[in-house]
Amino acid sequence: MAQATQLPLPRGPLATHGDLPHYGVHIDGEHRAPVSKKYFATTQPYDGKTWAMIADAGAEDVNSAVQSAWRAGNEGPWASMSASERGRLMRKLADLVAANASWLADIERRDNGKLVTEVSGQVKYVADYLHYYAGLADKFESSVIPTDKKGVFAYTKHEPKGVVAIITPWNSPLSLTAWKLGPALAAGCTAVVKPSEFTSASMIEFAALIEAAGIPPGVVNVMTGGAKTGEALVTHDKVAHVGFTGGGEAGRKIYEMAARGLKTVTLELGGKSPNIVFDDADQEQAVKGVVAGIFAASGQTCIAGSRLLVQRSIHDAFVKRLIDFVSTAKLGDPGLEETQIGPIATPAQFDKIMSYIEIAKKEGAKCVLGGKARPDIGAGRFVEPTIFTGVDNAMRIAQEEVFGPVLSVIPFDTEEDAIRIGNDIAFGLAAGVWTTSLKRSLMMADRLKAGTIWINNYRSTSFTSPFGGYKQSGVGRESGIEAIRDYVQTKCVWISADLEVANPFGRR
Ligand code: NAD
């Protein structure tokens, strides 16, 4: 929309002290300093430089944000707005996001070190998510119940759950926010969003677009900070639902805290997904899919295809193709279009990946590519794309989420083997299958225990299609029509057409 591009954006930070911009919290439509006046640094993974300071929101800020969201959902214009009007405002927001996508993507890339090409695509897709849910707002119909009681008319209403807490990880901040905020706003909920402490700035800037779109103040508030801020949010009395994406440890804790307050949750957690290549596969395509599955975002994605199961008859040839292809990958500055593999997002994550490489070697796996850090690039937070062969599925390198560019190759003989090994894992987020047999495709899709099965493709996701995990990979589904159900509660209304109420003491 032409109008959208003319807004006075970016908002920019609250203030600049010395050379560093300071970002505040977003409450009631205002960008404010945190009550504590405390800030923490946000740094660029590529060169390790601190580029901004982020508000460390405490319980007082969280309380103000939740109260603001509660008022907006119960007393403000949002509460009485029709679903169609909510949809109209969401479409404006979507247009603003599209118009400002490259600037938002630049902030995200600066914070999480992902490739500019990937982050730009993700941010543009945020606009598509919002358009999809804007359209759904007035199409999510309730029902008239054909009840067994004579003379009464019963119907259901979908009502918003109330204030929802949205907590996201560092790898795809705005994208994973949109997965939750889209259905939440379409349902009429209000929200407090807490981005990861490593990638907060894009959400604060996004909040300015929410105001510019005309979404009333208080409908979306933003709290920045770490686990303590998140806990204050999850345990707040007025929060009805928690939409969380992140690691299993935090997910489990959030589930426990939410259960104590009888709140509902959607949890999108980690994975250790099998990417299974049969001997009848188109190997050239399969290699590209396997590489995208594990080395995109330097393996820092929940859907990483980190276990490569290859049929033994093609194992050696396929591994050779893989090594030849990956060896050409260019590591470097994620801001440059030619870079193919970027840095690791945080120092802790870098240490974790390096320790898993050592664990794999000690377990007896054979490192056939990479396996080393690259201190010579940027600030040195790079890990070479790494491939281990001779991996047994019982090894830690096959069972635990590394969240880095480390691929474990496991041979198998038969379809039954592939299914047994593929399912022999605590996670169940996704699985890939490469075969030219339709019969085998359908059979594998039926028998693999995961929320998403990709046949002859990998990493496809869409606003139209439900996404979520089996087993330890999560609770609930995001995206698609289904997702809105997590943000509504159903009310049943009974209307009697008979004005005479039966004698309560009479015979029935
Ligand atoms: P993390 O669990 O450490 O943090 C995620 C978010 O939770 C952050 O905002 C953090 O501040 C907050 N948090 C942490 N502890 C909390 C607590 N006790 N109470 C409330 N909030 C708390 O995850 P991360 O390191 O940022 O991200 C990596 C993890 O996320 C990986 O395990 C990955 O698999 C998972 N992930 C899953 C998906 C998915 O859709 N399934 C997508 C991306 C990432």
TrEMBL record:
Name of the protein: Carnitine dehydratase
PROSITE patterns the UniProt entry points to: ALDEHYDE_DEHYDR_CYS, ALDEHYDE_DEHYDR_GLU
Domain Aldehyde dehydrogenase stretches: 36-493
Signal peptide region: none
PANTHER family assigned to the protein according to its UniProt record, in alphabetical order: ALDEHYDE DEHYDROGENASE-RELATED
This protein's UniProt keywords: Oxidoreductase
Family to which the UniProt record says this protein belongs: Belongs to the aldehyde dehydrogenase family.
GO molecular function per UniProt: oxidoreductase activity, acting on the aldehyde or oxo group of donors, NAD or NADP as acceptor
Enzyme active site: E268
